[in-house]
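Researcher: Here's the sequence for the chain we discussed earlier.
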Amino acid sequence: MFIIIRYITNNSINIGIINNITEKVSLENQLSVADDNLKNKLIPRTYAISNQ
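Model: Thanks. This is the structure I predict for it:
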């Protein structure tokens, strides 16, 4: 299964396919560093992450 994560702004993450809330929180924690790297950037970016 793939989880599609789209950065709208540096503070907004939309997760497309997800199993449950716990998984969503885990992904958001893992992406905290990447989110910091996108600080002050408004260009949308799309990533695909495998949770296998």
